Amino acid sequence: AQSVAQPEDQVNVAEGNPLTVKCTYSVSGNPYLFWYVQYPNRGLQFLLKYITGDNLVKGSYGFEAEFNKSQTSFHLKKPSALVSDSALYFCAVRDRNDYKLSFGAGTTVTVRA
Amino acid sequence: KAGVTQTPRYLIKTRGQQVTLSCSPISGHRSVSWYQQTPGQGLQFLFEYFSETQRNKGNFPGRFSGRQFSNSRSEMNVSTLELGDSALYLCASSRPTGDTGELFFGEGSRLTVL
Description:
The complex is a heterodimer.
Chain A: E1 3-5, E2 10-14, E3 19-21, E4 24-26, E5 31-38, E6 44-50, E7 56-58, E8 64-68, E9 73-78, E10 87-95, E11 102-103, E12 107-112
Parallel strand pairs in A: 2-12
Antiparallel strand pairs in A: 1-4, 3-9, 5-6, 5-10, 7-8, 8-9, 10-11, 10-12
Chain B: E1 5-7, E2 10-13, E3 19-24, E4 31-38, E5 42-50, E6 53-57, E7 64-68, E8 74-78, E9 87-94, E10 104-105, E11 109-113
Parallel strand pairs in B: 2-11
Antiparallel strand pairs in B: 1-3, 3-8, 4-5, 4-9, 5-6, 7-8, 9-10, 9-11
């Protein structure tokens, strides 16, 4: 079985400050890890993924995430948040031998001007 | 390149009715997945199709069914609708080979059951 935990329902930051959204995962084999963002009344947009290799992955809109195997974490980060980053963020995991993604509950990010 | 297209975007049904939702994947994508999103349960996997075959199924009752056509378009059907079926239904497609699991989502079909 695979699962994802996003321990924070909400994250509030000021514009220009660093943004971190936390994610931990559980999977039996080697994981594929993903971050998606959802704006109101829209579908999910892909941000970045970890498949293998460098533990620091860079994605769209200046976001990056660090894979930590020992802590089974995959935290999303952005050095300088923008008001337009305000949205709902989902972490997801997939076992390499499976075809379904398991999503976390989501974290609502609010960036204040 | 067109994205994943879902129709209809919004629909209202009453309890006991049935509904069919449609999904057209990105051109060349042969895998289509369906997810249900609700405020209480979050995003839950319904099923995944590849080359007209269901490869994986989530923990939903038999009222939820799907299929995929030879052109990779997919439909899902919910019969005997219940109030709890009110949700945003999301379809996603992915590349066929060397698949690392990255999904491309449509805008969703928002179903309201009265």
